[in-house]
Amino acid sequence: MTFLAKSLSRVKPSPTIAITTKAGELKAAGRDVIALSAGEPDFDTPDNIKDAAKAAIDAGKTKYTAPDGIIELKRAICNKFKRDNNLDYTPEQVSISTGGKQVLYNALIATLNPGDEVIIPAPYWVSYPDMVLLGGGTPVPVAAQIEDNFKLSPAALETAITPKTKWLIFNSPSNPTGAGYSRAELKALTDVLVKHPHVWVMTDDMYEHLAYDGFEFCTPAEVEPKLYDRTLTVNGVSKAYAMTGWRIGYAAGPVELISAMRKVQSQSTSNPSSISQWAALEALTGPQDYLDMSRPIFQKRRDLVVDMLNKADGLVCPTPEGAFYVYPSIAGCIGKSTPEGVKIENDEVFATELLSSTGVAVVFGAAFGLSPNFRVSYATSESELITACTRIQEFCASLN
């Protein structure tokens, strides 16, 4: 349709949302479906956070706020960055948006010009390339293979940088692989970036508090202070505090960039929900017991899923450092056929046939830029994970 903007032809709907929606439709139609496709904790939002939201409503805090957030929450975010990451920011360096996705989008829209390149390690979160395309830039995926634990190497980063490179989007622990970079691994990457002062770093730290086996999270500007003036450090409350629907993400960075992002937001959504902001304030400043409660549960689920998937014929599932995803390879299934005669030519066919045959919904690897794999979210109950992984084992065993 010529009526629609040409820019829309460059992007596609989110595959993760599409698959989760399809699973919901099948379930509503009476199918026995287990959706392992959504990146959403199954825990309820902690009571102290809900109580803070109710108190904000009762106190009449239901009006417009400043376009990019209330000063109280900005101060709390500054304190969080100092406490957790040893990063010093002032409130004027902070932007609060309707989820982490809007933070990233605002930054890209505010900075990209036609021809600008954005390096994105693959596998990547499905939205990164499309947001770059909507901003008029060119995504440059750089593959990080299973042999490297899905982590970008310094040599690959160096090779990908050109005079047109404007951003590196960096995500650790990663969606979709759960891979987390150690301080030494991250320092090796920042050493490369220091040599290229025209490259900025957009770091998505959304899974910071979901790290296992003693893995110590670190973020680029913390590891290499020389990058402080060209780093946008992005985080939020969605994953860590089970607040996905509250839609609060935030970032800190140079004042000029934050001001530009504020301008974009003021002419799009304006302020994020006032009630959600007061809830997020409680999340960051109130008791942190929830983090210590949820982390060992997620780690137990991870260990269960990794063990069961590695027992499935044709699958290889690395053990990730964090987040709540695994990204098994189906290389051993490629070329086989289902009992109905459908040949498993790629991971999209695998995921489609898995859902059709067993009712287990996963996201195929091509959506994340690296095949042949699929993503499992283990942010659901242990009983559902056992049932789902058993079905995956049975499906893989049926291939010949």
UniProtKB/TrEMBL annotation:
The keyword Nucleotide-binding does not apply. The keyword Transferase applies. Its cofactor is pyridoxal 5'-phosphate. Its EC number is 2.6.1.-. One of its GO terms (molecular function) is transaminase activity. InterPro entries: Aminotransferase_I/II_large, AspAT/PAT-like, NHTrfase_class1_PyrdxlP-BS, PyrdxlP-dep_Trfase, PyrdxlP-dep_Trfase_major, PyrdxlP-dep_Trfase_small. It comes from the Bacteria. It catalyses: L-aspartate + 2-oxoglutarate = oxaloacetate + L-glutamate. It is an enzyme of class 2 (transferase). PANTHER family: ASPARTATE AMINOTRANSFERASE (PTHR46383:SF1). This is Aminotransferase. It comes from Paramylibacter ulvae. The gene is aatA.
